[in-house]
Structures are given as structure tokens and as C-alpha cells.
Amino acid sequence: MALSKILVLVLAGGAGGRLELLTENRAKPAVPFAGVYRLIDFPLSNCQHAGIADVWVAVQFHPASLSEHLANGRPWDLDRTSGGLMTLPPFRGTDRGGWATGTADVLWRQADLVREARPDALVVVSSDAVYKLDYRAVAEEHLGSGAEVTMVTTEVAADDAARYGIVQTEGEKVTDYVYKPDEPATTTATNEVFVFSPQQTLDRLEALAADCGDDGLEDLGSHLLPAQTRDGLARAHRLEGYWRDVGTVPAYWQANMDFLAEHPPIDLDDPAWRLSTRGGRHSAARLLPGAEVEGSLVSGGTRVAGRVTGSVLSPGVVVEAGAQVTDSVLLPGVRVRAGARVHRAVLDDGVDVGERSSVGGDGDVALVGRRARIEAGTELPAGVRHPDPEQD
Q1: How large a percentage of the chain has pLDDT more than 70?
Q2: How confident is the model at residue 389 (pLDDT cuts 50, 70, 90)?
Q3: What is the overall mean pLDDT for the chain?
Q4: Which of 229, 234, 343, 387 fits 360 for a cystine, CB–CB 3.0-4.6 Å?
């Protein structure tokens, strides 16, 4: 029996403002994670393991930072003559052209392309979460359900629930959906993976677009998902495994810390579900005489002569003799010079921490922007943003 035709649309065009300095010069899906990966590697690897060959990536902010990493889809077996990976930048020339103002608006602008592709199921996913999921299995369940949308759900912390779309369910049926509610009724959140019946959903979008006025369709949770829920056409698929949204600096830091465990929440080297990424050109990591490394991820091309504990070192990081790095995430090319201290911090590409300097402390995570130079002897406290974006 022929496999169902499944089209995956990866929403990679958001500004990513909640990641602050990390997305000033790169697209949110291009933010490094766990040393050698990028956030977009998770949805693309999910497609690879599900055997889905039609994958579109909608881009908007800082597209160049993402296009090099995508490498025409080669790392995920998507560099194909027919189908494969296609990027969808903003365009002009039709009434659908222009800058997208939300996730539902992206889908409306690409509706003609989706109709032309004629998929049996349309899977729309975000690219700022860490998880593994067989999209094909969820899509096949959806196709046999009679629903117009299947929302993949997960449980979130009560004090964080207001950031998500929150659902109430009876069995698989979604009985209520509220987007980013002030007072969430439950802690069951949609995790930004949606399987749509394409024809019905696109027809509904057209009708909603005609009634939305100047604000437009906005996000999927603004008009589309509530309408599908009101009509009794929404169902839930619960994700039981690990899932973490990394759209804020604290969440990004915590997700990296999660993967330092002896048994991390996802085995990124599992032969049955390996996380694929664009290969780098780095030599093996070098631990020099006097180096002490404990409970950390150390990527290729790093050179450590100091002490590193509970941290993630991306390719090309240098920790000089006498320097200490604890509970931190260092992105590619960071240099921590002799006698410097880095604690509970995220340092972006190419940051240079001067001798005897101190970054971070016990408290909120500190964040230092790309290629910042911290002079010798400088002290940057816990929670600092350097350079301060409000002083630019």
C-alpha cells in the first residue's frame, strides 16, 4: 500500500526576540545547541527518521545564518531531484506577497503552493524546541480520525503555562483551546506541532482572512485553532517524552544543562534516532596538561587548559590555564583567558573574556553577545546583558 503523502512546513521565520542577544545576528533556528547542533536539527531529524521527503522551511529574519547550515538538506537526506528541502522566503508579485505577521499568516501566504503539492496531511512545526517525534505516525493517526487538526500536547509547569496555547480534552477530543491565557485552566499545552487536513484547513483560513480585518490572521492560535476547536474538529496527541521550549534565555540555558546528565533526556547518538546536523571541520578536542573537565560536553576543536565543570563547550572554544568555567554554555570560538571566571552564563560566538575577569554568578543567567570583548579585570554580575541592548 502506498504511503500517505505528508508535507512538513517548518516555521523558521520568527524574530526570536525572547532570546535577546542570541538572535541579533542569526535566525532563531540557527542558534547552536548542545555543542555541535542547531535548533532546526530537531524537526529536520524528526522528518528524516519518519521518512518524510517533502519539507519546506519558511524563513524571514537573518536567512543567511540558516541557509548555510541547511546545505540544501543534505545532512537529512533531503537533497533530492523531486521533493526534498525547499526554503520559502518572503516574496512579492502576488496578493499573497509581503512580510508575514504570524504563523497563520505564513500558512495563508503559502496556501497556493500547498494546494499545488496536494499532500494528504500537512504537518506544521516550530523550530525552537528540543524533542523527538515521529511525524508520520502522528499524521497517520490524524488521517484516520476525521479531525481537521491534531494538536500534539505536553505538560508544562503551572507558572509557565501562560506562554502557550492551553487545551482541555475529553479523551482525544480537544474541547477547549485558549492561546496564551492570562489564567490557564490546565497545564496541558500544545507544543507547536500541528497536523492539518490541508483542504479543509486552507478553506477555513480563506474564510477567516476575509473576517479578520486589519489585524489579519496572526498566529495559528489566534483564530484558526480556536475555530477548529469550536467546531469539534480538533484532537490531541500526547507527547510522553522529553520536550522543552527554548525560546527564552533561561529555558535555553536549562535545556543545555539537561544534556549534561549521565543519562540525558534524549540520546543524541542513538543509532535508531540519531540527531543529524551539518558536519563541521574541527579537529578533536584537546585537553592540555593541567586541564580539569567534569560533567561537560566538549566539542571538536576546543582547547582546555583550565577547569570546566557542568558546561557545554561548542567547537573552537579555548579555556586557558587558570581559567574556570562552571554551569555555562559557550558558543563557537569563545576564549576564556587565564585567571578568568565564567559561572551560569551563555557566551555567544567569539566572545573574548579577558584575564582575571568575572562573568555571571549565583542567580539569573548572564548573557554576553556575539564577539564582545571583556577587558581584563572586568566584573559582570549575575543576570547581566552585555552589551546592554538598552544602551545601543
Answers
A1: 98
A2: confident
A3: 93
A4: 343
Alpha-carbon gap, residue 360 to 368, rounded angstroms: 10
Between 377 and 14, whose confidence is greater?
Answer: 377
pLDDT of res. 244: 95
Model pLDDT for residues 297-326, shown as the tens digit of each residue: 999 999 999 999 999 999 999 999 999 999
What would the grid cell of residue 91 be?
A: 516574496
d(CA 333, CA 349): 6
Residue 304 contacts residue 293 (beta carbons within 8 Å): yes
CATH 3.90.550.10 maps onto the chain at: 6-258
d(CA 22, CA 370): 8
Assign 83 a pLDDT band (cuts: 50, 70, 90): confident
In this predicted structure, the answer to whether residue 1 has a pLDDT above a threshold of 90 is no
CA dist 365 and 239 (Å) reads 29
Q: How far is CA 143 from CA 1, 137, 151, 196, in A?
A: 15, 10, 13, 9
Based on C-alpha coordinates, what's the Rg of the chain? 22
Q: How far is CA 130 from each of CA 133, 210, 271, rounded to the nearest angstrom?
A: 10, 36, 18
pLDDT at 76 exceeding the cut of 60:
yes
Range(s) of the chain covered by CATH 2.160.10.10? 286-391
What pLDDT sits at residue 155? 96
- The whole-angstrom separation of Cα 98 and Cα 261 is 45
Distances (CA, A) of 156 to 181, 184, 222, 241, 254: 14, 11, 20, 12, 14
DSSP states of 35-104:
TTEETTHHHHHHHHHTT--EEEEEE-SSHHHHHHHHGGGGGGT---SSSEEEEE--B-SSTT-B---SHH
DSSP 294: E
Taking CA 42 as the corner, what is the angle to CA 36 and CA 46, rounded to the nearest 5 degrees?
Answer: 135
- Identify the residue whose cell numbers are 549575575: 382
What is the DSSP annotation of 94-148?
A: STT-B---SHHHHHHHTHHHHHHH--SEEEEEESSEEE---HHHHHHHHHTTT-S
CATH code that applies to domain 6-258 = 3.90.550.10
Which option is the CATH number for 286-391: 2.10.220.10, 3.40.50.2000, 3.20.170.40, 2.160.10.10? 2.160.10.10
Task: Summarize the confidence of residues 53-63 as an average pLDDT.
Answer: 92
The phi, psi pair for 77, rounded to 5°, reads: 60, 40
